[in-house]
Amino acid sequence: MTATDIHRTIDAVWRIESARLIAGLARMVRDVGLAEELAQDALVTALERWPESGVPDNPGAWLMATAKHRAIDRLRRSKLLQRKHEEIARELEAEQAHAGDAQLDALDDPIGDDLLRLVFTACHPVLSTEAQVALTLRLLGGLSTDEIARAFLVPEPTVAQRIVRAKRTLADKQVPFEVPRGDELTARLASVLAVVYLIFNEGYAATTGDDWMRPALCEDALRLGRILAGLVPNEPEVHGLVALMEIQASRAAARTDASGQPILLLEQNRARWDHLLIQRGLAALERAERLNPARGPYTLQAAIAACHARAATAEDTDWARIAGLYAALAQRVPSPVVELNRAVALSMLFGPEAGLRLVDALTGEPSLKDYHLLPGVRGDLLRKLGRFDEARTEFERAAALARNARERTLLEQRARDCAAQAQAGTA
C-alpha cells in the first residue's frame, strides 16, 4: 500500500470513527473540546506511524487506545488535578491495564449512549443555530473546518471561530455530557432534528452560491439521521425525518440537467429517481406511522413526499391527498410557508385561481417579505391563467430575491418567457 493509499485510508477511517471516538472520550474527560483535541492528536499519530507500520487490523480501536494514553498523560501533567480528574485517570489506567485485545470492546458497549450524548451536546440550546450546525458537522460528521466553510460558503475563519466559541460556551456553561430525560428529551430532540434537517436542506436546495445542490451535505445529514434512528428507535419523528430525507434525496440525479440548471419536480424524469432510497424512505415512513398514527410534522412531510414518490408520472400525483396532508400539517405547525405549499396543491387540484386566492392572502405576511418562492409561486399561477405581464413582474421580483445563482437564472428565464408570450398575445 502506497503512502497515498494509506492517507486515503486514514481519511476514510476518520470519517467513520471520529464521532464514536470523540463521544467515547467526551464521556471520560467530560469536555467535548478536550475530547476532540485528544482525538485529533491520535489522528496525527496515525498519520505519522501508519505509513511505516501499516494500517492496524482495527484502526478505530487503535485510535481509541492512543487517545486514551494521551488523556492519561494530559491528566497526569495537569497542575490543577482535582479529585474528579484523579478518578477519571484511575478509570482510564484500569481500562488500559486490561486492554490487549479487549480494547476492541471499548468501542462497543457504551458507544450508542456516548454518541447520543454527543448529539445532544452539539445541539444544546445554549448554542446558536449556526454553532450547532458547525459543531454537529465537525464532531459527528467528521468534516474539517475548511469543508464546513466551503459547504456553507462562509469564510473558514468564521467557521473556526464558531466552533471554538461553541466549545468554550459548553465548557463555561458546564453543559453536562448526558442524554436529557422526560419532557426535556422531547424538547431537545426537536432541536436536534431541526439541525439535521437544516443541514440536509442546505444540501438539497442551497440558499446561496452557484450550485443548485450540495450532495455531500445531504449525505452527511442522512448519515446523521440514520445514526439517530438507531440510537432512539422508538421516537417516531426521527423515523419521519429519515423517511423525508431518503425520499427527497432519491430525486437528486433528476433535479438538474447536464449544465447544472434546476429541473422542477413535475418536469423531472422519474426513471432517474433512486428507487432504493424511495423504498428505504417508505419503510421508515411506515415505521414512524406505526409508532405514532397521529403523525408529527416530519412524518406528515414524509407522507407528502411519498405521494410524489408513488406516482409513476406527474399526472398520477394524488393532489387531493397532498392537499389534505398540508392541511393537517398546518394544524400541527401553523406556518405561512406551509400555506404557500398548500396553495400549490390546491391549484393542482382545483385550478390556478383556487391557488391564487390563497397566495394573494399571503402577500401581506411579514415573514414572507423576502421569501423568493412567494412571488415565484404567484408568477407561476398567473402564467397558467394567461396573465403574462403580471407573471413576468412576479418572476422578476422572485429573481431579485433569490440568493442562489442557478435559481435566479431559472426565474429570469421564466420572466423572459412570459414577456415573449405577452408580446405574442398583443401582436
The poorly predicted ranges are 100-111
Q: Give the overall shape.
A: elongated
End-to-end Cα distance = 71 Å
**Strand content range:** under 5%
Mean pLDDT: 88
The succession of helices and strands, N to C, reads: HHHHHHHHHHHHHHHHHHH
Radius of gyration: 25 Å
Task: Look at the helices and sheets and give the structural class.
Answer: mainly alpha
Total E-strand runs = 0
Number of domains: 5
How is the biggest beta sheet arranged? none
Tally the helices: what do you get? Answer: 19
| Helical proportion, percent range | over 70%
Secondary structure elements and their pairing?
Layout: H1 3-29, H2 32-53, H3 59-77, H4 83-97, H5 111-122, H6 129-139, H7 145-152, H8 156-172, H9 182-204, H10 215-231, H11 236-249, H12 275-291, H13 297-310, H14 319-332, H15 336-350, H16 352-362, H17 373-384, H18 388-401, H19 405-426
Domain RNA polymerase sigma factor 70 region 4 type: 120-170
Protein name: RNA polymerase sigma factor
Pfam family, one: Sigma70_r4_2
